[in-house]
């Protein structure tokens, strides 16, 4: 895991090495183990190294091929690099290192842009092809690793984080009004190729582009996921499908454990992270036949507020696996200082204080490991959110599957009655709070269409891209590589190919996962229907310890001068919440966070 940055001066002009060095310095947290820069005429490439595979100097970047015609800066991991290396050696290629970086170079030599379809991993890279005079830029299938870019005069600039691009005085000085409004109104971000900064774009997941002297000459997708429209499985297929899924997920975990540095696990106590913890233990035992396997380290966030705390489930997972448990207890004692850093590392405002838990977990983990695995992506693939059940029932009704729709409705009410009540309260509260926003942004149509259409939207355009943004920034802030085995593209394709009833059945979410891990994960966790993840007691904090600072922000002249919201109405709504006269919803935090973001990134440039 690393940080990359660079410049391609179009029309044959010379790149600015000092600019690129400054860009690299701004993302040094992504790679404290080394840095390098390559400059040759119109191109400059910079790299910050977090050494994970082949810790020797042979892994130094920018990396060149044998004749120096290709130069690469790469952020991420190609998990199947060993298999690809063997294949490339059989094709006549010679390797001087054991790195996945060098595999990318030889794969490009052998297969051109089609090399992307052979990679299993997460990546964002830029490869300079001197013979063609082209910069080949690519991002992994699910967008796990970031790639931002901008045009400034005659230059194309790219970087792992927006802050590096903004070192150029002509980039990202004004807010992108459409994206800011979409964030405030709907909580959307990372749902298009645009960012909150005007003129700063991101390469979309599963896309590559080629940049030449005339600018971007090609920009296209290299992969798409196809969801099965079927509602029901074939008779007696549950055992076969759950067995196939378990085998595939175990292989994905094996690949994601490939590392030359210590690896840990984020354990929330929920179904997804507990499943990974168990599967990682099994993998460690398989890799240590006849001897004591290494002990797994897990990292968890816990709270005094029992509505958010999952210590009971974490204890059960720890006891059943024998892992070494590390825990952090986020509080409001230093939250404002941490939020300042959170804003800086994220570059853009964030929609919920849930991110603070993840931030604290990553800060805890840095003292023990350099790599963590977690369960990101399972909800979008396995229909883990309650809203997906509404979509599923609606689809059944529209297809005149009335009896099945009734069974799903009853099952949903049986398993999720408390959460349904809370959700309805929040629905009305959020609708009311959206009226506080003066500029309504465009909306990605979430929760419309069939279940699988909704899952595809959340996976590729709405929910997951934003969560992966958080994942990358909070981990890299502490020089940690975060890996997500559920997003192995083979797992994604397999789950997408399944009928809807393998995801939701009788009101039970993640049906096939629960079936696959039976006998492996403790029953009290396997049968959990509530969902918390790394939640925070945001509502309690906003009503208590954070309120003084929030009120100060709401009363400031800067806040009152913004065109995005009705400042007086926002203040009245928040005071009504403090007095117990109105419910809380996350729109309040989004407005506060956006104000802090404007102060941090936009106002200084005014």
UniProtKB/TrEMBL annotation:
Listed SUPFAM superfamilies: Adenine nucleotide alpha hydrolases-like, N-terminal nucleophile aminohydrolases (Ntn hydrolases)
InterPro entries reported for this sequence: Asn_synth_AEB (IPR006426), Asn_synthase (IPR001962), ASN_synthetase/amidase (IPR051786), AsnB_N (IPR033738), GATase_2_dom (IPR017932), Ntn_hydrolases_N (IPR029055), Rossmann-like_a/b/a_fold (IPR014729)
Protein name per Swiss-Prot or TrEMBL: Putative asparagine synthetase [glutamine-hydrolyzing]
Native species: Methanoculleus nereidis
Organism lineage string: Archaea, Methanobacteriati, Methanobacteriota, Stenosarchaea group, Methanomicrobia
Documented EC number(s): 6.3.5.4
Coiled-coil segments on the chain, per record: none
Keywords from the UniProt entry: ATP-binding, Glutamine amidotransferase, Ligase, Nucleotide-binding
Enzyme class: ligase
Catalytic activity reported: L-aspartate + L-glutamine + ATP + H2O = L-asparagine + L-glutamate + AMP + diphosphate + H(+)
UniProt family annotation: Belongs to the asparagine synthetase family.
Alphabetized NCBIfam families for the sequence: asn_synth_AEB
Keyword Ligase annotated: yes
């Amino acid at each position: 895991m690393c940080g990359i940055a660079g410049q391609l001066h179009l029309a044959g002009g010379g790149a600015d090495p000092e600019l690129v060095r400054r860009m690299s310095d701004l993302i040094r947290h992504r790679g404290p183990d080394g840095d390098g820069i390559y400059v040759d005429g119109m191109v400059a490439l910079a790299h910050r190294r977090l050494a994970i595979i082949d810790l020797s100097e042979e892994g130094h970047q920018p990396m060149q091929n044998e004749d120096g015609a290709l130069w690469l800066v790469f952020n991420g991991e190609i998990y199947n690099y060993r298999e690809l290396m063997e294949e490339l050696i059989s094709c006549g290629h010679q390797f001087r290192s054991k790195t996945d970086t060098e595999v990318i170079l030889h794969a490009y030599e052998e297969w051109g842009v089609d090399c992307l379809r052979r990679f299993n991993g997460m990546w964002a890279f830029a490869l300079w092809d001197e013979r063609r005079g082209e910069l080949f830029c690519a991002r992994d299938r699910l967008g796990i690793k970031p790639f931002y870019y901008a045009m400034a005069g005659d230059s194309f600039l790219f970087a792992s984080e927006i802050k590096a691009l903004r070192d150029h005085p002509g980039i990202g000085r004004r807010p992108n009004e459409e994206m800011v409004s979409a964030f405030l109104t709907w909580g959307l971000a990372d749902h298009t190729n645009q960012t909150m900064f005007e003129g700063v774009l991101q390469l979309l997941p599963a896309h590559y582009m080629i940049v030449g002297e005339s600018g971007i000459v090609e920009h296209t997708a290299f992969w798409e996921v196809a969801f099965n429209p079927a509602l029901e499985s074939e008779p007696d297929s549950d055992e076969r499908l759950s067995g196939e899924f378990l085998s595939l997920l175990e292989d994905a975990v094996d690949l994601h454990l490939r590392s030359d540095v210590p690896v840990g696990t984020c354990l929330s106590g929920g179904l997804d992270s507990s499943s990974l913890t168990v599967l990682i233990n099994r993998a460690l035992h398989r890799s240590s036949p006849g001897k004591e396997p290494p002990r797994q380290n897990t990292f968890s966030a816990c709270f005094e507020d029992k509505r958010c705390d999952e210590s009971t489930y974490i204890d059960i997972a720890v006891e059943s696996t024998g892992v070494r448990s590390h825990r952090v207890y986020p509080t409001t004692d230093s939250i404002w200082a941490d939020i300042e850093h959170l804003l800086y590392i994220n570059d853009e405002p964030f929609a919920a204080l849930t991110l603070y838990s993840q931030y604290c977990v990553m800060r805890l983990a840095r003292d023990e490991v350099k790599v963590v695995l977690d369960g990101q992506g399972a909800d979008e693939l396995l229909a883990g959110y309650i809203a997906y059940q509404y979509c599923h029932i609606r689809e059944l009704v529209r297809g005149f599957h009335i009896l099945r729709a009734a069974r799903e409705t009853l099952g949903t009410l049986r398993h999720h009655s408390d959460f349904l009540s809370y959700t309805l309260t929040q629905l009305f509260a959020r609708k009311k709070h959206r009226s506080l926003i003066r500029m309504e942004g465009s909306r990605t149509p979430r929760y419309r269409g069939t279940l699988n259409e909704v899952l595809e939207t959340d996976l590729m355009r709405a929910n997951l891209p934003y969560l992966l943004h958080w994942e990358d920034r909070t981990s890299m802030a502490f020089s940690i590589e975060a890996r997500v085995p559920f997003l192995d593209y083979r797992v994604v394709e397999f789950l997408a190919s399944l009928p809807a009833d393998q995801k939701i059945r009788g009101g039970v979410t993640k049906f096939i996962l629960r079936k696959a891990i039976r006998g492996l994960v403790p029953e009290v966790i396997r049968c959990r229907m509530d969902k918390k993840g790394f939640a925070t007691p945001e509502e309690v904090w906003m009503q208590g310890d954070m309120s003084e600072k929030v009120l100060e922000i709401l009363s400031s002249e800067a806040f009152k001068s913004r065109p995005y919201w009705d400042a007086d109405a926002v203040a009245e709504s928040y005071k009504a919440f403090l007095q117990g006269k109105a419910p809380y919803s996350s729109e309040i935090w989004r407005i506060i966070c956006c104000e802090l973001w404007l102060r941090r990134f936009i106002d200084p440039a005014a």
